[in-house]
Write a structure and sequence with these properties.
3-stranded mixed sheet
Length: 89
């Protein structure tokens, strides 16, 4: 399934988009909770009137400035830890 192209500032905040068997978006997982305006922007872009499949990996709310300053560290740490889960040696 092809991931929809969102604006770069939104795409950057999204960890994964899941699809159901009918190729409809079933879940959008972000690193941190998205703001109401970000959710509206995504829904508008995807031409969806209502959708309740938003979730986030972390529960903490962070500012845009905090995200911009730490996103590479957060993504790297999260990716490294996910790969380490599979290492059973």
């Amino acid at each position: 399934m092809v991931k929809p192209s969102l604006s770069s500032h939104l795409e950057d905040k999204i960890f994964e988009i899941k699809f159901d068997s009918g190729d409809n978006i079933s879940k959008i997982i972000s690193y941190f909770p998205l703001s109401a305006s970000e959710i509206q922007e995504i829904l508008s872009f995807l031409h969806i009137k209502s959708f309740n499949g938003f979730s986030s990996i972390f529960a903490d709310k962070i500012t845009t400035n905090e995200w911009e300053n730490t996103k590479e560290q957060i993504k790297k740490k999260f990716k490294d830890e996910l790969f380490d889960i599979d290492d059973m040696s």
